[in-house]
Amino acid sequence: MFSGIIESLGRVVGLDRQPQSLTLDIESGLTNVAEGESIALNGVCLTALAAVESGPVRFFVSAETLGCTTLGALEPGSRVNLERAVTPSTRLSGHIVQGHVDAVARYKGSTPEGEGRRVVFEVPANLRRYMVEKGSIALDGISLTLNTLGEEHDGVFDIGLMIIPHTWTHTTLGTLSDGDRVNVEVDVIAKYVEAQCRIK
To answer: What is residue 49's DSSP assignment?
Structure first.
């Protein structure tokens, strides 16, 4: 489990594409990574393949993960958001994030607003029922607050978020260009509530 508070900005330093899988070497800035440790990479829960005191961490990405996330678009030099799993003593500064991606959203741009930036993403319409204004969402693993929800049209809808300067400069959000895709994880509590309501 993760909190959506990005610990480190990593960089892809090695990449081996196979027909139905991908192996990534990530210069992470993390130390004492244990073999089998869960680390969220752009919001996707991956497993460290070997113990690493310092230096690149290797991850295997399966066909399933390639099919439902943006990890297949990574290239050598790509920057990535990294977060280690929380521990029982960790402050939950963001919200409960599992690292299980629900869909992919498209970046539509940003506008300055004071010291912050208002950003807009286009999200698949089937996720609308899990979102509320002032609720939580994870985009590329970053815990964010939903400020506005647009109307559904053509199978999508827009979400608006206010990004503070720290988040803009300490995550990959500040590097996005119009049309770039990001991984989306909705609030898991909303999904559990929906499941319980269906049972009743």
So the answer is: S
pTM over 0.90: yes
Task: Render pLDDT for 56-77 as a digit per residue (tens, 0 to 9).
Answer: 999 999 999 999 999 999 999 9
Q: What is the Cα–Cα distance from 66 to 15, expressed in whole angstroms?
A: 14
Which amino acid is located at 158 in the chain? D
Distance, CA of 104 to CA of 186 (rounded, Å): 11
CB 38 within 8 A of CB 45: yes
Per DSSP, 77 falls in state: T
Give the dihedral sign, CA 120/125/130/131: positive
Helices (H), 4-60: none
Rounded to whole angstroms, the Cα distance separating 120 from 161 reads 7
Q: Cα–Cα distance between 25 and 136 in angstroms, integer?
A: 30
